[in-house]
Write a structure and sequence with these properties.
532 residues; five-stranded antiparallel sheet; 29% helix; single chain; four-stranded mixed sheet; 21% strand; alpha+beta
């Protein structure tokens, strides 16, 4: 029997489109241009489905819509907070094997073309790399999200059917992620990289490379009365201190997700007492990409030693000043629903105070020591938060006799090198599109995944990942997911150092912008307004 809570969430009846979020206590004002922080040039342009980075998803989100989306007003993203966007209603059929969407009839693309089921089929056939597609994505980080889709049918202009190979209730969570917009079938992909044609609340105006991305209000947006703003301007500032100063001085109205550390939040609050600081989970995980296929990490003793050498508690309490929590491959409560608790991690990894001594023993057994130290080159992205993490890892490994140098790569170089599995050790911060095991586990830990950057392959773990995906009982699914995470800690494919906490900052005149416990799904901006 399906528990009542799951039945309520995934009931096999039509789900009506949620009404727009209730108005705040103040009456929203129309007009104004919101200036928004952007940390770097857009690595994959404006093409969300070809990217893994918030540096594209954040500035491109206002241009697009999803079939379904997480309610912008609710920080926690769960099945209960999914609302319709391009889908007016939807229905599960055949015991979660068929998902039927009934589309809105009043939607136009920014160039005036009508939105139809053809666009939905085009988008997700493209992402899942259906056998008959003629266009290929340059990068396809979310192919594995839709590997269970057997076919997508468009029986008429406003109906779409996702036919699944096996039951998979969580596909709705992935469709609701900000990483799952619908693209127009009639616009060449190459054009979407340099300008975006969407259905969203804002229309593309201009991208000045290295300076800014600008949008104007979409007067034909299908949500009546939205957006409130006349436009958006994402200001590209690559140096962390300079963009913090711009926010503090009022040249920016709001930060970008994941960019405000505890130290910076304290600085901003001291300089501008009225600055709104919201402490939220970011669904980002500082971690180590340990390449099992390349020496020295083809030796399990070396993998384990490097894992044990990095003091998680010291990083969380010292480097991040408490702006993170410990966990495994999935984020723990209260910022997520599926992760291991810190005591459960300790059961697998051992007590923190004994880890460095055990690391030295393992290295000695592998032939490394004072007269023959382990030396290699690690890589990280040339972004301030990554460099901070890399400095900490270098210091930690030095304490067990490991000497590494760190090479910084720009974002394009980084994604190329990781995809080709060229790194020995990547010092990394992973951002995940949605807090669900299917999205994170299939994408990063199955043997054939494109984003399995570490060459890790455990067929038993892959079978468990498949098993949890189709389990309809939440308690049974959670137990399987916890078992998987313990096996991943023991296997060291991508040791989790922490789960990050953001201190999202904006000026008090910015209203209606509610940061989520995830970077990727609150950038639509249709409910944001300026009180000035």
């Amino acid at each position: 029997m399906i528990p009542w809570r799951l039945a309520a969430t995934l009931i096999l009846t039509l789900v009506a489109l949620a009404t727009p979020t209730a108005l705040p206590a103040q009456t929203p004002k129309y007009g104004g241009v919101l200036t928004v922080m952007q940390r770097e040039e857009l690595p994959q342009g404006l093409s969300i489905i070809e990217t893994s980075t918030i540096a594209t998803v954040w500035p491109a989100s206002p241009c697009f819509n999803n079939l379904v989306y997480f309610d912008p007003a609710k920080p926690m993203e769960t099945p209960d907070t999914i609302v319709g966007e391009l889908a007016a209603k939807w229905s599960w059929q055949d015991n979660y094997r068929n998902l039927v969407f009934f589309l809105r009839h009043d939607v136009k693309w920014h160039d005036g073309h009508p939105f139809t089921s053809k666009d939905v089929k085009f988008t997700f056939d493209l992402v899942r790399e259906a056998p008959d597609v003629t266009t290929k994505l340059r990068l396809n980080p979310r192919k594995d999200w839709y590997a269970n889709v057997e076919a997508i049918e468009a029986p008429d202009a406003y109906t779409v059917v996702f036919r699944l190979k096996r039951p998979q209730p969580s596909i709705l969570m992935m469709l609701a992620s900000g990483q799952s917009p619908v693209y127009p079938a009639h616009v060449p992909l190459a054009e979407q990289r340099s300008r975006c044609v969407g259905t969203g609340p804002f229309k593309f105006k201009e991208w000045r490379r290295g300076e800014s991305v600008e949008y104007v209000k979409n007067p034909d947006y299908f949500v009546k009365g939205r957006p409130y703003l006349e436009g958006l301007k994402y200001v590209i500032i690559s140096e962390r201190g300079t963009r913090t100063a711009a926010l503090q001085a009022g040249r920016l109205d709001t930060a970008a997700p994941g960019e405000i550390t505890k130290n910076i939040a304290d600085q901003l609050k001291g300089a501008v007492p009225g600055m709104v600081i919201t402490r939220v989970g970011s669904l980002t995980s500082p971690n180590l990409l340990i390449n099992h296929a390349r020496p020295p990490f083809n030796d399990p003793r070396v993998r384990r030693a490097v894992d044990l050498a990095v003091d998680r508690d010291g990083y969380i309490k010292g480097a991040l000043q408490g702006a993170a929590v410990a966990g495994g491959a999935l984020v723990p409560r209260p910022f997520g629903s599926w992760g291991l608790t810190e005591p459960e991690v300790v059961q697998v990894l051992g007590r923190p105070e004994g880890r460095k001594a055990e690391a030295r023993k393992l290295l000695a057994a592998a032939g490394y020591g004072p007269s023959n130290p382990l030396r290699f080159e690690a890589h990280t992205r040339g972004i301030a938060t990554y460099v901070d993490l890399a400095s900490y890892v270098v210091s930690e490994l030095k304490q067990v006799g490991v000497e590494i140098t760190v090479k910084q790569l720009d974002s394009v170089q980084w994604y190329g090198a990781t995809t080709r599995k060229e790194l020995q050790l990547g010092i990394n911060i992973s951002g995940y599109g949605v807090d669900d095991p299917d999205a994170i586990l299939f994408e990063n830990y199955t043997c054939t995944s494109l984003r399995n950057y570490t060459s890790y392959c455990d067929e038993a773990v892959s079978r468990l990942i498949e098993q949890q995906s189709q389990e309809l009982d939440p308690k049974k699914r959670l137990a399987i997911v916890h078992e998987i995470q313990k096996k991943l800690i023991a296997g060291e494919p991508r040791p989790t150092v922490a789960w990050g906490i953001d201190h999202f900052a904006h000026w008090p005149h910015v209203k209606g912008l509610v940061p989520h416990h995830s970077l990727y799904s609150f950038g639509r901006m249709q409910n944001v307004w300026l009180d000035r």
